Amino acid sequence: MKKLIYALLLFVLLLPSISIAGEIHGDCSFGYVPEAESFCADLSIRYDFWRISVMGGIETLMEKSTLTVFTFNPYRNVYYFETSITPFAPFYINIKHSCTHVILSKDKQFYDIYEDGNRTTISIGIKW
């Protein structure tokens, strides 16, 4: 799955040079997750073209290390890939896949409720 996400990110980065009009959006965030008593770092990229949106990213959960001020111990990675098609507004079709990978950390280990940490969702909806 990692190779697929890396290939997708490379494709999205090279897409403007293929002279296809579209928009690239990126997002990077860091925050606190109260339910897990952990911190979260998220990095994603999205490419919008016509009525199609393709997105991929990685999210890492980590706990604060007691050793130094700016040190964290990661214990979970989530890789995700999403494609959304809007055949006609306001309706859309969405396919999302995510997979969880445990990182052996100093004090904590995460167990996912989905088998092998994989989850794929296919949905239709309305935006307003």
Written description of the protein model:
This protein has 128 residues and is mainly β. The chain has one domain (2-108, 116-126). 10% of the residues lie in helices and 58% in strands. The protein has one helix and six strands, in the order H-E-E-E-E-E-E. The longest helix has 13 residues, at 2-14.
What's the helix and strand layout?
Layout: H1 2-14, E1 23-33, E2 38-49, E3 52-64, E4 72-88, E5 91-102, E6 118-126
Antiparallel strand pairs: 1-2, 2-3, 3-4, 4-5, 5-6
Short description:
With 128 residues, the chain is mainly beta.
Count of extended strands = 6
Q: Which overall shape is indicated by the principal axes computed on the Cα atoms?
A: elongated
Order of helices and strands: HEEEEEE
Unreliable segments (pLDDT under 50, ≥5 consecutive)? none
Indicate the radius of gyration in whole angstroms: 17 Å
User: Reading side by side through the largest sheet, how are the strands ordered?
Assistant: 1-2-3-4-5-6
Structural domains: how many: 1
Q: Report the portion of residues in β strands.
A: over 45%
What's the mean pLDDT score?
A: 80
The number of helical runs is 1
Largest beta-sheet details? 6 strands, antiparallel
Helix content: 10-25%
Structural class: mainly beta
